Structures are given as structure tokens and as C-alpha cells.
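pls design
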């Protein structure tokens, strides 16, 4: 994508005047920002499903992904603690 194309896609006024630019803007995909909370929830859901099926291979993959996510986002809630909580029977 060249500078002129990027400039035309960024110009909302031009998009109002030009149907081609309006169509290009509508068809241009922009990646969503990375949301660690959403990824953590997805991994936790996948782990629970794998746990219920007894799918040890998938559980291992999710644990590795969770550890990587925890390492990348230090200081926040740790996903591995949540996963360990699922694996530990409740004490009554």
C-alpha cells in the first residue's frame, strides 16, 4: 500500500465525495487490538473443555500458551493460577 492510497483511505471527506474511496474504506480490514483479557478467557474456556474431555494434549498446549501470556503481561492476574484452580479439587 503506497502513501497516496493510505492517505485516501484515511480521508473521510474524500470518501463522502468518491464512491470508489468509500468502497475501498468499507473493504479495508483493520486488525483488532490485542486484548490479553479476551485471550485469557478464551484459553481458560479451552482448558475447561479439554479438561472435561480428558484431552491431555490440548490441556498441555493451553498451559504453554497461558504461561506465555502470563510472562508477557507481568503484574496482571495470572492465568496459570486460574488453571491450577481448575485442577485442584475444592476443599470443603
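designed seq:
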Amino acid at each position: 500500500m503506497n502513501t497516496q492510497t493510505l492517505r485516501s483511505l484515511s480521508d473521510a471527506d474524500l470518501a463522502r465525495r468518491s464512491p470508489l474511496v468509500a468502497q475501498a474504506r468499507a473493504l479495508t480490514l483493520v486488525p483488532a487490538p490485542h486484548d490479553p483479557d479476551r485471550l485469557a478467557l478464551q484459553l481458560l474456556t479451552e482448558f475447561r473443555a479439554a479438561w472435561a474431555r480428558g484431552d491431555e494434549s490440548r490441556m498441555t498446549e493451553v498451559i504453554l500458551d497461558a504461561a506465555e501470556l502470563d510472562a508477557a503481561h507481568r503484574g496482571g492476574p495470572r492465568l496459570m493460577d486460574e488453571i491450577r484452580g481448575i485442577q485442584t479439587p475444592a476443599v470443603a
